[in-house]
Structure formats: structure tokens, C-alpha cells
Amino acid sequence: xxxxxxxxxxxxxxxxxxxxxxxxxxxxxxxxxxxxxxxxxxxxxxxxxxxxxxxxxxxxxxxxxxxxxxxxxxxxxxxxxxxxxxxxxxxxxxxxxxxxxxxxxxxxxxxxxxxxxxxxxxxxxxxxxxxxxxxxxxxxxxxxxxxxxxxxxxxxxxxxxxxxxxxxxxxxxxxxxxxxxxxxxxxxxxxxxxxxxxxxxxxxxxxxxxxxxxxxxxxxxxxxxxxxxxxxxxxxxxxxxxxxxxxxxxxxxxxxxxxxxxxxxxxxxxxxxxxxxxxxxxxxxxxxxxxxxxxxxxxxxxxxxxxxxxxxxxxxxxxxxxxxxxxxxxxxxxxxxxxxxxxxxxxxxxx
Length: 351
Hints:
Among the domains are: 36-114, Alpha Horseshoe (Serine Threonine Protein Phosphatase 5, Tetratricopeptide repeat); 121-177, Ankyrin repeat-containing domain (Serine Threonine Protein Phosphatase 5, Tetratricopeptide repeat, Alpha Horseshoe). Helices cover 53% and strands 1% of the residues. The chain contains 21 helices and 2 strands. It has helices at residues 2-17, 20-30, 33-41, 57-63, 67-75, 92-98, 102-110, 125-132, 135-143, 156-163, 166-176, 184-195, 198-206, 221-227, 231-239, 254-260, 264-272, 290-297, 300-308, 323-326, 333-341, and strands at residues 83-84, 90-91.
């Protein structure tokens, strides 16, 4: 009993010495909206002006999905755009997007968050949403004036192309007025691709569709067949003269599209027709190679095949990162270990 009383006394003493900021942030982390309300009503600043910006109460609430508390902080004058310097100088809005938290993003935007702030790489919150392929967040940000021309890791359209998020890309092109309207013959070809129907592909081509034409996203139709894993349609296009090395706006080839999506048989078919394994994209495509994409996606069979065919293990993207670097992380441990076993040079020690 004495030990319990002593522990309670020490806890009370520690609490009594906690600063108002510490009490507020502890309540935020615990999700204690009532206690947060009491502290704010008593005059505790929602800004924590004597603390580092990256520990701002609103950042804590936004990163932890505490919607009611974030609303309270904003109502008590919290600046809507604190920055987390240690995490790419991300704004509270970027953290909400990073968490795929549509409700938090809505709260912050209504509270005055600037939609076009840039992180340390020059990417706005819109590019973060596009990275994840989150169409509802993309729509929300566009509705609040997000610009699609801001360039960090490429502009909005280029990021969507690199990530392969078709629905998001179509939305962005519609927003920019850049979506192509295919001819009737090309529409028939696109339907044939969707159905993976080689006979229908040939019929559409005979009716005037172009084997080297572009789909509504302004990318080669061959790349679309590769991306979607349509092997019979892809073979029909190649037989009709589709250029195996045709590139899209960021320098991705059809083989790279197949590799990103994990389509080994499609990649093999393209390579058999002359597709290069050492090709690297344009800078707006981060100068990635097929092996970078296979490593990032954790496609083990493709990694083995690419390496066996001589794809460069040490190819460097536009920031100097190798395929091994793109496989780093617990979620992709098998790809990381496979690349090491195949002879990839270990990454330098951090720091």
C-alpha cells in the first residue's frame, strides 16, 4: 500500500511540474478531447510558440488522426500549416494525406491550410495523394485549388504516370483539359485491349486504328497492353508494327510498365521482340530502370529474370539510388535480400 501511495504521489508531483505545453500534447496523444478543451479554455496556447515548430499541437493531432482535437486547435487559433522538419518538411495537410485521412484533410483545408505548400523535395500535398493513387484526396485537393504544374518528383501528371495510377491520371488530364478523345477505330482498339482479344485488335487496326497510336492518357497503346497484362493483344500490336521501344512522356517503355505491374510473361515477350532491359527513363521519370521498378514492387520472379538477362544491378536513378535502395524497408525485405544474393552492392551505412 505504501508503495502504491508513493507511486501516486510521484505521479502527481510529476504532473504538477509538467508545462502547459506538455499537458496539452500529452492530452492530444492520448486522444483526450475533453482535457484538450479544458486546457485551451484556460489559456494554454494552441500554437506552443515556445516549442520547435515540428512539435506543434496541430501536427501531433493531424499525424494521429485526432479529428475533434484538430478542430479544437484550429478554433483556438492554431496556425493551419505547421511543418515537420524531420519528415521532408511536411505540412499538417501532407501528414493527413500521408495517412490517407480524407476527413483530416478536409478539416485542415477548411481551417485555412495552404494547399500548394511544398515539401523539401518541391512536392505539394497533391503529389503525395497521387503517389498513393488516392482519388478522393486528389479530388478534394483539386477542389481547393491544388496546382498540377508544381514540380518536385515531376508534376502531378508525371507522378501519376510513373506510379501507374490510371484513374488518377485520367482525372488530372480532365482537370487540365488534356485528355485525348480517341477516334471510333481507336475506341474499338482500346476495347479489344481490355478484352485481350487479338482478333478484335486486328479488326480495329484494319478499320484505321494505329498500332503506334496513343490512348486517352497520351501514352502508347502498346504500353497500355503491357501495363494491363494483355498478352494476346500485345502480340497482335507487335505483329502489326507497334514500336517495342516507344516511350511515354516520362520515358517509360512498355517493358517498364509491365515490370512495374509484375507481369513477367509480358516483359519476357517484349524482350524477345527487342525491348531493352538497360533503358532508363527521363529525369521526370526519375531515370528509373525496369529493375528499379521490379525492386520497388517486390516482384521477385522479375528481379531474378532481369538479373539473369543482364539488367544492370547498379543502375542509378536521378537521385543516385540503385534498385537495392528502392527495395529497402521491412515491407520489401525479400526483394532486398534477393538483390544482395544476386550481387548488388550493399548500401552505405547511414550517417
